[in-house]
Batch of 2 targets.
Target 1
Amino acid sequence: MGTLHRFSGTEDHFDWENVKSLHYAEGSAKGVSGKIMIGTDDGAEHFVFRYFCVEPGGHSALNDYHVHPHGVMILHGHALVTVEDKQYEMGPRDVIFIGPWEHHSLAAVGDEPMGFLCVIPHKDLLAKLDSAKQK
Amino acid sequence: MGTLHRFSGTEDHFDWENVKSLHYAEGSAKGVSGKIMIGTDDGAEHFVFRYFCVEPGGHSALNDYHVHPHGVMILHGHALVTVEDKQYEMGPRDVIFIGPWEHHSLAAVGDEPMGFLCVIPHKDLLAKLDSAKQK
């Protein structure tokens, strides 16, 4: 009857009750850790809420490139977000949509960790859509 | 090349650049306004990021009930969230998943407006999945 995850973190390292760590080890990533805030364990079949924390000087996989889009909201710290040939300085509450097959990376700038919410479609849903298209 | 929406609001009424207001007029709702932060206009085909602001004493439609799930993060203020026969007091950064066909409502408690991010699957995507299932 709803699945609640109460905030249990600190100002620069967010965490929630009853969430799992997410193994994020893309080749070129540096200083990134993740959590799954809403996902399969909650019964969510359409989307996944992930939180990533990037240490100062760190970044997600450079030039990352894949079929699934990202809906991102910066939660703390400051980011330099690269999408294709554009760069955006972003701070708390700023939002960006990164479309399918857009090369992208998110880096922490400044002395503080940078944390963001990153929503993606559930991978089983992408597979179902792909399968429906092929029929 | 990514679609950026910079935060442009205040502490208790969030807003972003280049977002549209969302008409929310469910029968029993009171004191609720909304914005679409990420949606069709951004090219997003899988999910929609909505922001709702609930004035003190206000609430979303009572006992709302529909096929689409919600991924919710409280952004400011304090909420009383009802899902089926459970009630949860929630504050900033707390997260809840509300599944398909779970009766629910979100109310603002206290003297401040309550704002939350509410992610839903895109309605065209739900239609595609439904159509694929029927084939």
Target 2
Amino acid sequence: MTERVREILSWYGSDTPGTRANLARMLHHGRLGGTGKMVILPVDQGFEHGPARSFAPNPAGYDPDYHFQLAIEAGCNAYAAPLGFIEASVANFLGAIPLILKLNNHDVLHEETDPLSSVTSSVDDALRLGCAAVGFTIYPGSAHARVMYQEAREIAQEAKAKGLAVVIWSYPRGSGLSKEGETAIDVVSYAAQIAAQLGAHIIKVKLPTAHIEFAEAQKVYQRYHVPIETLADRVRHVVQSAFNGKRIVIFSGGPRSEDETFFQEARAIRDGGGFGSIVGRNSFQRQKTEALAFLRTVMQIYAGEIQ
Amino acid sequence: MTERVREILSWYGSDTPGTRANLARMLHHGRLGGTGKMVILPVDQGFEHGPARSFAPNPAGYDPDYHFQLAIEAGCNAYAAPLGFIEASVANFLGAIPLILKLNNHDVLHEETDPLSSVTSSVDDALRLGCAAVGFTIYPGSAHARVMYQEAREIAQEAKAKGLAVVIWSYPRGSGLSKEGETAIDVVSYAAQIAAQLGAHIIKVKLPTAHIEFAEAQKVYQRYHVPIETLADRVRHVVQSAFNGKRIVIFSGGPRSEDETFFQEARAIRDGGGFGSIVGRNSFQRQKTEALAFLRTVMQIYAGEIQ
Amino acid sequence: MTERVREILSWYGSDTPGTRANLARMLHHGRLGGTGKMVILPVDQGFEHGPARSFAPNPAGYDPDYHFQLAIEAGCNAYAAPLGFIEASVANFLGAIPLILKLNNHDVLHEETDPLSSVTSSVDDALRLGCAAVGFTIYPGSAHARVMYQEAREIAQEAKAKGLAVVIWSYPRGSGLSKEGETAIDVVSYAAQIAAQLGAHIIKVKLPTAHIEFAEAQKVYQRYHVPIETLADRVRHVVQSAFNGKRIVIFSGGPRSEDETFFQEARAIRDGGGFGSIVGRNSFQRQKTEALAFLRTVMQIYAGEIQ
Amino acid sequence: MTERVREILSWYGSDTPGTRANLARMLHHGRLGGTGKMVILPVDQGFEHGPARSFAPNPAGYDPDYHFQLAIEAGCNAYAAPLGFIEASVANFLGAIPLILKLNNHDVLHEETDPLSSVTSSVDDALRLGCAAVGFTIYPGSAHARVMYQEAREIAQEAKAKGLAVVIWSYPRGSGLSKEGETAIDVVSYAAQIAAQLGAHIIKVKLPTAHIEFAEAQKVYQRYHVPIETLADRVRHVVQSAFNGKRIVIFSGGPRSEDETFFQEARAIRDGGGFGSIVGRNSFQRQKTEALAFLRTVMQIYAGEIQ
Amino acid sequence: MTERVREILSWYGSDTPGTRANLARMLHHGRLGGTGKMVILPVDQGFEHGPARSFAPNPAGYDPDYHFQLAIEAGCNAYAAPLGFIEASVANFLGAIPLILKLNNHDVLHEETDPLSSVTSSVDDALRLGCAAVGFTIYPGSAHARVMYQEAREIAQEAKAKGLAVVIWSYPRGSGLSKEGETAIDVVSYAAQIAAQLGAHIIKVKLPTAHIEFAEAQKVYQRYHVPIETLADRVRHVVQSAFNGKRIVIFSGGPRSEDETFFQEARAIRDGGGFGSIVGRNSFQRQKTEALAFLRTVMQIYAGEIQ
């Protein structure tokens, strides 16, 4: 175990050896293994946006085996997906990569202002499928946030008791927020705090803008001169908001973007003290060779091999 | 076991031997046994549309014994029905045909924009009645979809643990969709994906039209030239959307139609790589002799004995 | 055991010996014992309509002992009542008559368009009180029908596992129906079908009129010339709708009426193949001597001793 | 055991020895012990109306010990209170008086048309605190009546199985009723019937007026000349409505009133066959000496020592 | 054990030795140990108001270790925080200070008139983390108060059975109250009564104003001349309202204020018979040295070392 991983694990002193071992497995796996940085491949877009919107750009992605192969060949730390995708292929890739079973999901066939994900699998499903962690999405700002917080809490308690790690996707959305507010710096850092207080081991948030959503928060940012000008500043503030950097915070890649834009963001995450990226559409919507090259660059940035 | 059945079963590597044995039972049963194709007789219309609308065209159908006899004589792979129908007759046909207990149902005595089925029997009912599988309907697009997804998930987890197979009827409906959208190609393939991600072994959807419901999807179908012109094209796209063909997808026959129309649809399902049909009103609303002849033709199309 | 009872029991081949024995107990008990016909005394009106409206016409009925005595002396097949009435008197009449514990109830102190009964006792209450069956009301057509169907299902599963019979009162009501539609022939036969599919052993419905509520149903009744002109025709259609006569269907007496009207209805039930009546207000709201004479005539009609 | 208590207990023939022993304890305790009459001290007004409105008139009442002392010294049959009050003092008065733990409560900090009490303690709390009975309020006429009936049912079943008695406060309220209707004779007697059918051993209602709320009921009261002119008549009708007098029905004292008014009411309760009073504000809002004298008179009326 | 602590513990005679031992631990810990007074450090503002609004004034507070250190060095009786904060640091401070796990939380990303906290951890979490007590917030006056009362009840019952103490934050809010009414004397004393009746061992309320919210209460305060003019009077009335002083009532410090204002409030709490303060923002939003000095003064006031 590297010094850095040992340090990170020291922040999880309340957890059982089983849970800490699974955190260690993810931190040690793949190209970034041991650096304390993580790049995770998540593929829940088939459920979240529909199959064609997700996989038509690279039809190999319709096949559940493909994403295991991509994550393994790219040297990701873990692969995250809903029940069906994991069930369909895990027996073909036993032990090859740490798995995160995404326990709730949401689709866009019914529009709503205040989203509420459906619980689509369980901690026991994660155990029978050999996963290292469970993933769960909360939508702070939704009128239904309470339901999701309480589901997250129950899942976290059960997962910890059964030796799994807990990853929370904390995505502000809903009638409590403006569209711009969903990625406002005060809101994203608040979302990170909530996930941390709910007991997440790993927290996934979107990259924040410099917008501030709430007047009450605005006063504080101004009065105390909280630095939020550059993306690295904002990453630093979000990481600080997650227990002063004592929780693993990784950032979402978002929709497919220009390579250089993405690399710049990765640099900002790295420089701001972020722990890495979860890269979905930017990897599986490319042809495999291209995706592998792209992910290699991202990992080199995190490893500090590229500035 | 035929090569084809062995191949199909290989896609279900996460499942217990009990569940895989029940899938094998259905795939090996009847005239199409071993071909990898399935024709299933479902009779839940008494609950869904009322008894007269369902059985007055062929009053023999009021009797629960009749449907067992029809399914057995026609050589179907399985017979699917709600609790009452199975309970009333199963003791007279022990072991004669694989059974799918339909665990939820819906009636039309109360109109609603966003349908929500009632859970009317349980996995333990399926076990005590000797069924091979449980069936469950979800309505993606309904404001109540979350309730049904979560019920489906709980049922699927219990059924798998108890060695049963899981069949999901995935029928888009509700305030999230236009009437035309219920059978739009983007919606039906999305419905197939959702059922697959929820962990269904067998997925039942309606035949899709070339209509595209959502603008976001429309862009993708155009940009990536997804072929959806012919019915066979669309079947192929739906099957692809269900894990690149690694889940059994069968298609609903719908209301009683002209024989030739139905046969053309069966050809399209076969040619597009679909796994078969679930034929309700088109079989039990005919006189028995006529129904047997009709189903024989359908099976011959699937077997490739008729082009 | 008579041939007829043996035949009736043969329709319940999925049930445990305990449940079938309790069905047999009810079918063999009282004056009509062994004929396959049933007359049941139900007294839940104190809860449903209030005590004065129920018992002021014959104040003896305020006393829970009275109804046991009436049912026993009249030779009914069973006595059905809510928890309180059974608890108050059962110890005074141990084993004297089969009992049906009515598990849900509804009052009229709060008006509502879409009724939803309250669950007021349990299967385990029925066991500790020595009952042969549980009774449960569903209101198809109510916006809350799903709640009641699901409660019915859970109760039916538990009752069957514990050796009790299940009686479902299936009374269409609610915003899905017009007032006239509550007793329309298409609706009553649909209600009988739903109760049968939910797994009821005995189904209680109201006598249907010749009105047809739904246009979709109307087309079918006309096209297939379903006979519904006479009351006997309609009874026959309802019985057919309950698994082609393979479920016990009995009819509700309704509010107190003229003797001759009631007897004509009993003849129609008998001639249409119905299994009998559940006679509440028409019996307990009369003086006892008069009630006994009245019920004797009803039973003689069912026994065929009076034409 | 007196003849009268033996007679009363004979109405509870379905209950376990544990429950009947607890009924006997309450019927034998205090000055009225053995007469079949009861005077109970209830103190839940601190929760229901707030502390100052309840206890400022006699500040000794802020102290939980006070009410134990008052009930014991006055010779009440039992003392009823919410969890906090019982927990705070029971260890100081072990075995000194039968206790009724009030399991649900309601406050007035949030106005509502259709009240719904909160469940604030459990049957197991009653057991660990050594109580003889549990108390529960239902509001027939509220849109939420179903919730309370079902909670009452679950509590009653558990309490009976664990040897406790069940006291139901049945107070009509809510959007189904006019203000005047809350104490209308048809409504109060209906409320008594509902509590009895739900399985209450002891039923607490308000004293009824001669008003009749519902037209359907009005017809019956007129047609059958039900006597409701005097308060004693109405008490008799309410008692009759609770299983022809075979359930213990006691009456609420209501807000503090003139002594003579209260005594007249007690006479009417006695003469109408009522079983006693539950006297809250009229006792604990007086100075103790005055309260003891007041309660002594009430008990003498019930004992027939004063006409 | 001091006489005062022994006296306080005597009010909790219904509790298990485990629970009383945990109350004793808190009462004996820190600078005020043994005096019967308490100063508790609560840090749930990260969840309740967001991280920047809470911790930007003193960025050391982003770190979960900091609050443990502050509470320990200041000699507080206990430290209260949500799951995440306790989990992150408890292993570094084993046994150093009694802990109160805050089991529910609320955020401000979604505005609502009637607040309802989310349950974010459990009694079993408190046990595995070695806490002495659980904390729970109720909002009397909210349309959702019933949900919180029932959750509080379930948690209190479980906590008591498992040997933990129960702290209830009782904060009137919601559509039942005006803004001014949230701290009205009748409302705050009512809130204290409700928490006491729900079974709280320690009750936390806000300091009340002399405003009276409800007309019914106003009459009583005037008629009985309840003294509420000075803050000490009002504290005395609130303490009286919590079982005549037989429950530990502590007061919330509120937002950061002038030192002298705060000290005056502490004097009023002390002089009115209050048991102490829960001091959040006024301590952790200052630099540590300043916070320690500030808390020392507060404790000296409570200890009577400063008048």
